[in-house]
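ARCHIVE CARD
SHELF: 3
SLOT: left
DATA:
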Amino acid sequence: MSEWDFDTVVIGCGMVGMAIAAAVAARGQAVLALEAGSRPGEETSARNSEVVHAGLYYPTGTLKHRFCVTGRRMLYDFMDRTGVDYRKCGKLIVATSDAEEEQLGRIHALGTANGVEGLEMIPAAEVARREPVLSAQAALLSHETGVFDSHSVLQRQLAVLEAHEGLMALRSPVASVEREGGGFRVHTGGDDPTTISTRRLVNAAGLWAPGVAHRIEGMPPEAVPDQWLAKGCYFRLSGRSPFSHLIYPVPVDGGLGVHATLDLGGATRFGPDVEWLPPGTTPDRIDYRVDPARAPVFEEAIRRYWPDLPDGRLEPDYSGVRPKLRGPGEGFFDFDLQDVETHGLSGLVNLFGMESPGLTSALALGEAVAAAVCEQQPLPRAEPAEATG
């Protein structure tokens, strides 16, 4: 009998954590996935645009670029194999000025360098043919972008975990972690506090990942990155949607701008905007309510590319929060994947800054972390052509 209760404990059952747990279990390891909430994927994984990103925006060679492109291909394949609904509707990034058209050209060049398939620059006349209500002097069409049912993917990943005899424990927040005999002793709180021993530990707690890391005995405080939280609100469009593609403006600081996304039923949702929460805000203090008073700001942003948006068509929907590793105006940051080389604790992997394109990247991240913890392969490192983007 093993001296350990589990080979690997994964903290966090969002899309990334569940993908890691399923990939480790598929390698024949005894796995427990711990989730603080009452359901898997209740926070970042449930509060987003449910977009399959193509991989356009990220500096070439960065982890976001590599995991997004690989993860997108894996995700479409997984959904085909498991019967999850998705729609590869394509995305138009629209330019409404000469300066934005120049930026669009740079995004096209970057996407091409990143190996993104199905990119096409189209002129104003073609934009009008495809989307008659848009006002744009040019657009970049990404044929590989789509929308999907993220909750169904999460459930299929849970099925993979359970098929390989892995376990998930809900309402089990991590209170503390001790080092023990080359492994870890994990103390959980919640309704049924317990203690679990494991050879390896993966911290994929999303918004909570820095806080969890600080509760791991021996974790150097300086190795835990500072985290900024950026809230994004969504408004839904009442009535019939005028769009057949996803519609994006050129990117803004902290996000991709107030864009129009379609759900699988064809309804349109606008967002997210970017609201930087006060420094020191903790995940348990986030107010996810959407203030109806934000609607005029949304209307102004939307009318840059849809001038005839009727008054009163926007209704508050929901919001999400991005776990960022840089603050306002500080530019691009990459995923932060940490192993023993970073923090000196063998058997521990931390994942920080798992914001977009984390959902698209989840299956690729799962395979990479599983290979690291099960097969002692090194975690991928960024090899950026540029330091910023």
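SLOT: right
DATA:
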Amino acid sequence: MMKIKLGYAVIVVSILIATGCAKAHPENTVDKDSLPSNAPHNPFVGPLYWSTYEYNIKADDYIPEEEWEKNINWMEENLKDYGYKMVCIDGWGDDQQFNEHGYRTSHSKHWKHDYAWWAKNLKERGMELGMYNNPLWVIKTAADAGIKIKGTDIPLSSIMNEDENATWFKWVQVDKPGAEAYVKGYIQFYADMGIKYLRVDFLSWFEDGWDRNMGTVGPKRPQAHYETALRWIKEACDKNGILLSLVMPHLHNEAELEIKYGHMIRINEDAEYGTWYRWSDNQRGTKRVGWSVYANPVDGTTYWSYIAGRNKMILDADFLRINTFANAEEKKSVVSLCFISGGAVTVSDRYNSIGDNLWVYQNKELLALREDGFVGKPLTNDPTKQESQIWKGQLSNGDWVVAFFNRENTYQSRGIIFADLPMQDKANVRDLWKHEDLGVMSSFSTRVPPHGVVVIRISPL
């Protein structure tokens, strides 16, 4: 048994020593601490990178190439040495730029340089390009131009259903000849540029044509078509060592297919305007069916923590707009959850919006957790329970890391007894945000500020 102090009471929480977390799963009695036996090994860790998202969402348009370059220069100067070596394009571009195989070559027709040029430029800087694109999208103007699928004599137009009533996209029909060659060829096209990250969006729309806010956005396909598409994409990514990020998945049947075919999954709604409300309070504690199962990142990360772990699924809490949070406590809490959960840390603040907040992303002691492959777990994955706000996990050298979060609007007491980790009674304690050694202790307690966090590292004597 573990005694955990929450609020002003001591709550006794059962834990599984082998996994380091208690579980709360009223809907499903299957063991949640290990992935299904058919889940492949995941060779990746949570990526550190910058995304264009903040510019795109504010402007509701593509990012101009000069703005793209200014942000790359800023990243190179301020964050590259901390491990943030990838920059990733996002949506809002136009599809007019395509090659002889119908593959998209550039973010916008207004850009001077294409993706291949930027991939080479970034490589020369010791950085890399991340790709936002869905290989299940067909560029209609390319199909109308009579383009043939690479390596075949099959018209691109033949794998697209002109009459399909789908919002925004022309989707690949996976039951058509040439579809597999097109999808895998698309990924190979980017792999040949040296791209090692692919962010595939709007998967729920392809799966069953339903959106929580928009209603019907396409046809309801057989589940086998969705699985086939994921399998093709995963096979091509694995062949080329590409981290596959699945975005907007319904995660039906406890993410059964996404666990099998993805390396990373989105687990909450879009960041949009940022702020603590979007991060923690938006429909707090409400579990739903389909995309997205939980609205906010804290709920989503907490619940889906049971499928994460070393060499397991990476959780993606979407883009971070640290400049939108009210104070230092909120900013520390946001970044800490990404690191403690082993998830992606995706900077979307820009050179002209970051203000004096770079320090939040530059905590070397948290960054060291990622280098170790650390993935912590909450004491329960039920986000409605207060003990879900305490996360813990063990580093490869035997040290423990414990994070005490506070989602509430008032100060909260948090604490832990070291003998219950389990470890010897006394240990050295270090605060990873204050960067201070706190001394030798046998237990730890603290008062966490509203929306704040305290992260400690516990090292055996």
